[in-house]
Specification:
Blueprint: H1 8-14, H2 40-48, H3 63-76, E1 80-84, H4 87-96, E2 104-108, H5 113-125, E3 129-133, H6 138-144, E4 149-155, H7 167-176, E5 180-184, H8 189-192, E6 202-206, E7 220-224, H9 226-240, H10 246-277, E8 283-287, H11 297-304, E9 310-315, H12 318-328, E10 333-334, E11 344-346, H13 358-364, E12 370-374, H14 380-392
Parallel strand pairs: 2-3, 2-4, 4-5, 5-6, 10-11
Antiparallel strand pairs: 1-7, 6-7, 8-9, 9-12, 11-12
Helix pairs in contact: 1-3, 1-10, 3-10, 4-5, 10-14, 12-14
The structure holds pyridoxal-5'-phosphate (PLP).
Length: 394
């Protein structure tokens, strides 16, 4: 069947499948680190040039991992993909494989804590200069980009304040100086992402989030052109060791099969919750890109079609009120993953963003009353009732 005519829901279930001679229905887990050659000559040839269905060592590639890479590349609309041990292994490899000492990078400043560590601490130790900008300010991108800017980095929707960056505008500013646009697309999810069409060159996911979607395993993936993936990224990952395990790849393949259904249901519930909680007397803010009151609502609708699966709520009364709210919840659990089937709530100031200074947090809008709610697959009315009754306790 001509795979490029398949729609997303079909791709999510079938793309990249490689059946063994046994014709198994569910993808096989090739839990092997190595592969046997039938002669010394074959081994020599395999090392000279391995073909599409030929493998050498699981750190370089594995049939189960390859199925996951091909399936997600088909979904994202890229020529190729490389799977990694975690989302951070993917972010690190995407940047390290592109950059060398003396290069300049422009990055949005509203970043996941570990991404900020790579851009702020690691890259600078290797002689890469990084300029941070307010990602939603196009004039700031324009002013920061220089002829020697090699890459720009951004989270399409930022964690936890849910700023939505105008990707086509930033990509066109970057492309004028020939910079590579690297997008951490976790909050947009592969379901709503049109990142490549909108101008991204390299897309990165933490598969730990919506792709697994059931809180089981860490994983990541880098997507881009065949040239970038095979010539720049693959040598870096295969020799530095950030490969995905075959068992994880199998979990992620199973996750992809239901991704569209799960993420759409989570996004619909998130909208319902945001609409109900907006304007609540105990809240000073209900931030959700799907609400018309969100400052980047128009950009979000144009880029994502739905508002995503995460809501940021600011509880009046600061940390004490926020803790009282979290502790009164009965269905929503207190943890720090997101994209899970279970609804999860986090207090960024004291957990995920604890490492930042008060000034840095204030700059990013991470106030002591702010909580981040990742909406799961529970019944929407049950979640609304749980959230409303916990707000009563504040
Ligand atoms: C979680 C996350 C990561 C890191 O992914 P891990 O799988 O935990 O390594 C990177 N970027 C964003 C935006 C994330 O939410």
């Amino acid at each position: 069947m001509p795979k490029d005519t398949w729609k997303r829901r079909t791709q999510q279930v079938h793309a990249g499948t490689r059946r063994s001679q046994y014709g198994e229905v569910s993808e096989a887990i090739y839990l092997t680190q190595g592969f046997v050659y039938d002669s010394a000559e074959t081994a020599m040839q395999r090392f000279e040039a391995s073909g599409d269905d030929e493998f050498i060592y699981a750190r370089y590639g594995n049939p189960t991992v390859r199925m996951f890479e091909e399936r997600i590349a088909a979904l994202e609309g890229t020529e190729d993909a490389f799977a990694t041990a975690s989302g951070m292994a993917a972010v690190n490899a995407a940047l390290m494989s592109l950059l060398r000492a003396g290069d300049h990078v422009v990055s949005a400043r509203a970043l996941f804590g570990s991404c900020l560590y790579i851009l702020e601490d690691v890259l600078s130790r290797f002689g890469v200069e990084v300029t941070f900008v307010d990602g939603t300010d196009l004039a700031a991108w324009e002013a920061a980009v220089r002829p020697d800017t090699k890459a720009v980095f951004l989270e399409s929707m930022s964690n936890p304040t849910l700023e939505v960056i105008d990707l086509p505008a930033v990509a066109s500013i970057a492309h004028k100086v020939g910079a590579t646009v690297v997008v951490d697309n976790v909050f947009s999810t592969p379901v709503f992402s049109r990142a490549i069409e909108l101008g991204a060159d390299v897309v990165v996911y933490s598969a730990t989030k919506h792709i697994d979607g059931q809180g089981r395993a860490l994983g990541g993936v880098v997507l881009g052109t065949r040239d970038y993936i095979r010539k720049a990224l693959e040598p870096f990952i295969k020799h530095t060791g950030g490969a995905m395990s075959p068992f994880t790849a199998w979990l992620m393949l199973k996750g992809l099969e239901t991704l569209d259904l799960r993420v759409n249901a989570q996004a619909d519930t998130a909208l319902k919750i945001a609409q109900t909680l907006e304007g609540h007397a105990k809240l000073s803010q209900c931030v959700f890109p799907g609400l018309p009151s969100h400052p980047h609502h128009a950009v979000a609708m144009a880029q994502l079609e739905k508002g995503g699966t995460v809501i940021a709520l600011e509880i009046k009364g600061g940390q004490e009120s926020a803790f009282r709210f979290l502790n009164a919840l009965e269905i929503v659990i207190i943890s720090n993953n997101l994209g899970d089937a279970k609804s999860i709530i986090t207090h960024p100031t004291t957990t995920t963003h604890q490492r930042l200074t008060d000034d840095q947090r204030a700059d990013l809008g991470i106030t002591p009353g702010l909580v981040r709610l990742s909406v799961g697959l529970e019944d929407a009315d049950d979640l609304v009732a749980d959230l409303l009754s916990a707000l009563e306790a504040v």
